[in-house]
Backbone:
């Protein structure tokens, strides 16, 4: 028999998402957000939920755009830092050694060193309680060639995205390939 754990924010795996924004004065910022993921296929869209207290909250509303940077294991320390410190208190790009790059498609920055980026135009936002969910239409996906497979699509084992353990607040890497989706269930 399963043991009840109560109503908690437990979901596995949870991606580590670095949200890129410009504030009202044009200062680039990154924040670490775990509450997010793909939310629609057509148009391709991603959702991320932020508290109003975050510096990025007002920036997304102001600029109507954001980026989602997917850090690899090599960016773990920088990814954690941008989740600890507020953009109100300093320049997170300078502090981490990351380089802000201005998107040519949306009014938001991304980090040059982060290997995989979604550029998003804000299309909806919903107050859910403590958090507001921002839905961004993905207008482009950018990937470093080093994380692409022979077919030109991202290779998860090359990207090595970080996963967040919501129960114990730790970071993990991706494990072994288990089977082909939409195939193994046919047997």
Residues:
């Amino acid at each position: 028999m399963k043991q009840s754990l109560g109503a908690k924010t437990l979901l596995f795996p949870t991606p580590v998402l670095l949200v890129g924004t410009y504030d009202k004065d044009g200062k680039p910022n990154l924040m670490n957000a775990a509450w997010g993921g793909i939310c629609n296929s057509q148009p391709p869209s991603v959702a991320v939920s932020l508290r109003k207290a975050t510096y990025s909250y007002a920036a997304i509303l102001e600029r109507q755009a954001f980026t989602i940077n997917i850090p690899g294991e090599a960016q773990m320390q920088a990814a954690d830092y941008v989740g600890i410190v507020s953009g109100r208190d300093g320049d997170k790009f300078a502090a981490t050694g990351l380089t802000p790059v201005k998107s040519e498609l949306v009014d938001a920055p991304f980090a040059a060193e982060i290997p995989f980026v979604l550029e998003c135009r804000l299309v909806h936002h919903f107050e859910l309680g403590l958090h507001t969910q921002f839905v961004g239409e993905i207008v482009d996906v950018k990937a470093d060639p080093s994380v692409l497979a022979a077919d030109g699509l991202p290779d998860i084992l090359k990207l090595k995205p970080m996963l967040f353990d919501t129960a114990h607040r730790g970071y993990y890497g991706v494990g072994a390939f288990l089977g082909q989706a939409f195939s193994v269930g046919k047997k």
